[in-house]
Design brief:
Two copies of one chain form a homodimer. By secondary structure, the first copy, chain A, is of the alpha+beta class. The first copy, chain A, contains six helices and twelve strands. Chain A folds into two domains: 3-63 and 143-256, CofE-like (60s Ribosomal Protein L30, Chain: A, 2-Layer Sandwich), CATH 3.30.1330.100; 64-140, CofE-like domain (CofE-like fold, Alpha-Beta Complex), CATH 3.90.1660. Chain A is globular. Strand 1 of chain A pairs antiparallel with strand 1 of chain B, so a sheet runs across the interface.
């Protein structure tokens, strides 16, 4: 019941964090983010939200796989033929997935895609396995193993260094059913809510709001897409002025159980 | 090819527009919005984005239907029984829809829902027909007939009054497949892009970005959810500092053709 969010937020600022070095495996990403926040000259405050793209989190955590070291399974070879992808990359995708929902090569792009449910429960293209923004063509990058834990590690390090309780959201850009284009969504959360639940509150005419849960973590993540862009020279952003009540959420709170999903 | 967006935006501000009166059918909504922008004391500038919730647009445009004047069709009666809704409301929903994708009454909420494709091509609950935030229990509110045209009218009026070229986005909160919670999306656009197309540009390692279109209008609309909330005492917001190139888009640009939709 965090409906008071409605009455608190009137002015939000989003700052893309500049000057982050290119992240390498083993880098102290939290330390880099702390310095980038300090460099903004803004006093980050409790309740602010730090948005971090999964790509730099994955890189810092060494979630790289060398394709030359991957032996594709029979299933990977079969799927790879169907969609025209490197069988070794498909093998990595399968290892990251609970199941493959679709495997197609749309005529519109000619680029094969596996729509997968990842081990985290996320539904996205290629289970988030990506070869862009990598300097070595032999490597692909996987999503963080536990993005909530990654967010919590960054949150703790920021608190230790700066003495403020930020929320941290790890973002990734996902395609969507029904609608064109990618949007950034929250795949990891620490210290902030996933959903704000207005059930039980009333609108200004007195009607009860019965099914109104707002996916605030996804709305916050969407902002990241506006300042980061896709070229990811700005892979993190600070949101100031958004206020929330209520218990911290987890990325899993945003995953809709199949039984409740009328949109599928 | 508007990839230069990547290099322009570093600092975005979002202001919820306070002091808007409750909107009634026939009200000069654009004039109200102009005064609300003036009241912020901010000099709105070319390239800023005005976000307006569909509800006040629909109200100003008189998109109210009196249920006492609606005679439900046989199909409406049958669907209404199935999902436990007022047959007259179901009739209004059917009139607003091209087709009904699902009609269910989930045990989790007990509240019947029709997932519809609206006449605009939007896929959402109850074709956007809503009874909340209305003072008269006999009325329901439909989406604007042509939200792009509604946005353009507001844009023209703002330009005439303030001499600035804002983009205008009309927003609504939608449920989504796979993910919990509502997010605000763009259902009407004027003077700004729907998608920013990065295809043909390269990431910083030189890899071509092949399928990267960002749904910037939806990302901008998502911000609205953070300042407006659902109680809609703040039904409009001004986004300052986001910069874009490229041709203005339309809401239809965000509707994914079935043939391209691997996520369905």
């Amino acid at each position: 019941m965090e409906s008071s969010t409605d009455l608190k937020t009137r002015d939000i600022r989003i700052h893309g964090l500049e000057g982050l070095p290119l992240v390498q495996p083993g880098d102290d990403l939290a330390g880099m983010l702390v310095r980038a926040i300090q460099n903004t000259g803004l006093a980050a405050g409790t309740g602010d939200v730090l948005l971090v793209t999964q790509k730099i989190v994955s890189k810092a955590e060494g979630r790289l796989v060398r394709l030359s070291e991957v032996t594709p399974s029979e299933r990977a070879v079969e799927l790879a033929q169907r969609v025209g992808k490197d069988p070794r990359k498909v093998e990595v995708i399968l290892r990251e997935s609970r199941r493959v929902l679709k495997a197609e090569r749309p005529a519109s792009t000619g680029i094969g895609v596996l729509i997968c449910e990842t081990r985290h429960g996320l539904v996205c293209a290629n289970a988030g396995v990506d070869e862009s923004n990598l300097s070595d063509p032999d490597t692909v990058l996987c999503l963080p193993a536990d993005p909530d834990a990654s967010a919590e590690r960054i949150r703790s390090a920021v608190r230790a260094a700066l003495g403020v309780d930020l929320a941290v959201i790890i973002t990734d850009s996902f395609g969507r059913p029904w609608r064109m284009g990618l949007v950034n969504v929250a795949i990891g959360i620490a210290g902030g809510p996933a959903l704000v639940d207005l059930r039980g509150s009333a609108d200004y005419s007195g009607h009860p709001l019965s099914v109104t849960r707002i996916a605030v973590a996804d709305e916050l993540a969407a902002i990241a897409g506006l300042v980061m862009g896709k070229l990811e020279l700005i892979p993190a952003a600070l949101v100031r002025g958004w206020r929330f009540d209520g218990a911290p959420g987890r990325a899993a709170d945003l995953i809709r159980p199949a039984a409740e999903d009328l949109f599928r």
